[in-house]
Design a protein that fits this description.
The protein is 22% helix and 27% strand. The chain is an alpha/beta fold and 339 residues long. It folds into two domains: 166 residues, Alpha-Beta Complex (Quinone Oxidoreductase, Chain A, domain 1); 124 residues, Rossmann fold, CATH 3.40.50. The strands form three sheets. Strands 3, 5, 6, 7, 8, 15 and 16 form a seven-stranded mixed beta sheet that branches. The chain has a six-stranded parallel beta sheet with strand order 11-10-9-12-13-14, with helices on both faces. A three-stranded antiparallel beta sheet has the order 2-1-4, with no helix packed on it.
Amino acid sequence: MTTPTMKAIQLHEFGGPDVLRYEDAPMPQLQAGEVLIQVHAVGLNPPDWYLREGYKTLPPEWRPKVSFPLILGTDVSGTVAAVASDVTDFAVGDEVYAMVRFPSGLAGTSRAYAEYVNAAASEIAIKPAGVEHLHAAGAPMSLLTAWQFLIDQGHDEPNPLQPHRHEPVPLAGRTVVVNGAAGGVGHFAVQLAKWKGARVIAVASGRHEQLLREMGADEFIDYRKSNAEDVVHDVDLVVDAVGGPGTGRFLRTLRRGGALFPIFPLGYSGADEAARLGVTVSTTQVRSSGAQLAELAALLDAGAVRVHIDSSYALADARLAHERAATGHIAGKIVLQVR
C-alpha cells in the first residue's frame, strides 16, 4: 500500500538556509488524542534556525539527538482535516492555530513546515475569527512566550536554569522596559504590558519607533544612539527579548525589588550583582498550551494585541525566509504561506 505524501521542507543535514529542501514527505499518522491540521500558514521562530544549525549555541550535552530527515517548525494556523476518535473538542473544518510539541519537539518532531501536521488536541485552539491565517500563524510561540513570562506561566515544569519557579510580577502602574521591542516576543511584550496598565519604554532600532508607539510604547530609545542602561533608572521590570551574556547590563536600570526577565538567558552571569542590588532575575521555558491560546484568541480578536508581519514567503521559499531572519532587525514575525 502506497504511503500518502505531502509537500514539506525537510532537512537532511545541519547547515545554513541552503540545506532546506522542498520535497515530498510522508503524511503524519494521526494518534489518539490528536488532530490533523491542514496547514495554511507557518510562523518562524529562533528555535527553527537553532535546530537547522545543529544547536551550535548550546553546550554539547544539551543538544538534542536528531534523526534525519526532519521537518522544522512549531507554529501553524490551518483547518482541521481529521480528529482522533477520542477527541471531542474539535471537528473537521474548524479553523485552529497551535504551537506544536514544544519544547518536546526540539529534536525536530514538531514538523510544522508542511502541508499537514498532527498535534495534540491540548495544544491547539480555535483561531481568532477576525484574524487571517497568515497573522494567526505568527502568534503562538512568541505570544505564548510573552504571556508566560509576563502574565501567567501556566505550568509547573521545573526550569533547569534556575532553582525557583518563574513568577510574573504586577504590571499595572509599573514602568517596564522591553529590549528588542520590535522582534517577535518584544512586540507582544510591549502590547501585553500596556494592556495591563504599565508605562512601557521600548528599546529598538530607530526605524521601528513609529510601529512601537502605535503598539503602546510610551517612550522609545534608539539603541543605536543611546545605551538604555545609561539613560533609564529605577524601573520596575526589564524584559530583555535579546538576552544572552549582555543582559546583565540592565541590572543597574532597576530599582531595588525590581525584576529582570531575560528571554534567552544562556550566558548570563550576574547573579551576585543582582543579589547585591536586590533585583530578581527570572526566566522560564515557553510550553505549548491550547488553553492559553484560546484565552489569547479573545485578545487578538478584540485588537488588544495584534501580530505584525515583517515578511511572508511561500513554503517552497523557506530558504529565503531563513535568509531574511539571518539579516536581523526583524519587525514582528516572518511567516510562510502554505495555502
